[in-house]
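Lab meeting, action items carried over

1. Structure of the two-component assembly. Owner: GW. Status: complete.
Input record:
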Amino acid sequence: MKTYFKNLFSGIWNLLQGMRITMRNAIRKNVTECYPEDRETARQFERFRGELIFDINENNEHKCIACGLCQMNCPNQSLQVVSKMVETEDGKKKKVLEAYNWDLSSCTFCGLCTSSCAPKAIKWTNFFEHAVFDKSKLVKELKGDSKPVEKKAAPAPAPKKSDDSQVQQ
Amino acid sequence: MDFELVNLISWIDESLRDLCGDASWAVSLIEYVLIAIAFLGLYCVLALILILLERKICADFQCRIGPNRVGPWGLCQPIADMFKILLKEIITLKNNDKFLFFTAPFLILAGSLGTFGALQFGKGLVGVDFNVGIFYMLAISSLGVIGILLAGWSSDNKYTLIGAMRSGAQLISYEISAGISILTMVLLGGSLNLTDLIEGQKDSWYLFQGHIPAIIAFIIYLIAGHAETNRGPFDLPEAESELCAGYHTEYSGITFGFFYLAEYLNMFIIAGIGTMVFLGGWQPFHINYEWASGFNELMDYIPSYCWFVGKVFMLVLLSLWVRWSFPRLRIDQLLHLEWKILMPISLVNMLLMAGWVAYIAAQNN
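Predicted assembly:
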């Protein structure tokens, strides 16, 4: 009999606690975003992978060295690096980027391309309105008319003892 | 200044009598038809309001906005839904009892409408009023169980049958404690007539007149009544995660619409009965002391139907709050709650109320 009433009142107390929590949720601010209306003020998330672009600086230069690592890392062949070999003035052979095609329709936005890119030439933006009327428009050429960034004659870094040990390893 | 709708009704009655002259049967006929149309219209409009309210409140509890595209603040959403459901095809099944299959929604609607007609919406706004009004309401609201059982049986589907059986067990069990808690208040009011019951709450509602037994009865009525609407934590008959949609799985179009309509209106009706028996129906809130006479007069200025609808919607909001807070019970927990907790307590509570009534009677003599 004692446990009967104990269970009864503790049950009622627990239910009231549950109702208090739901009421606190009910009077909280809504989390819904009304997308087309709040297009200008919509919250953007820094790490959201919306669109792949070339990191082009103010001199219209990109950093791509046409190594093709991104293309190799892409799990579903969404990337196509078109390059050609040219001979520079000092007689060296060098790979130069001709076109960089990104097929949005087969991209899974996994981000393996950006993480494997050694010179950090490609990056993600928050742009997400990708709808087009023609499927062929989903294949995007990212390079545009940008040129490869001019190699600065950077001085070789002074060797350090710690670096030496790393090299030996 | 008097905004009571009863004035309008008596004006219609008088002008009809002038118009028809000697033929008093014609007046009765026209008035019956008018009342039927008014009740059916009110029934549908209330269902639309309740559906929108439910969706908005549900959205609030989940930190969403809810319907907000159709009309301002989504006000036209239930109307759009209504037209959608009217335009949908009524799918007929093979190898089932067609007659019972299409009778079931009408039985549910009949039970719910019959109860709806006996609600007292305001001063003089009464559809059905006779000396055993509250008994009639309890009796005719049980008609819905037959509809649910028939719907589950005639759908020729194991899920609908399980849903219907659960519903039958649930409704029959919970009607007992709902009935006993109403009986407790009838003991206090001393009448089965709804008009007398409401008149008795003129100075203070039965919830306050009956002290602790009335409050216990009110809580038990709210739980049992909530279970009778097949909603909230007691939605085992529908249990969408287990039984598709329970007893109305096989219905489509307007036949499904009838179930939907009856579910929402049952919520309103349960809250309405609770309002009439515990919260004074359409009587305004009065403080039964000399110093509060100004306050009482102020409360009298609010029309009676506003009081009724306001109280009912308070109870409906409470029921929605409960619905969106608690997880669904298992069938054994459900029956345990009724037969081992609610029913013994309400029986003891009735004895307590009898003692309280005897005490009042002894004091008055």
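2. GW to write a short summary for the group page. Key points so far: Strands of chain A lie at 51-54, 61-62, 79-87, 93-103, 122-125, 139-141, 147-148. The mean pLDDT of chain A is 81.
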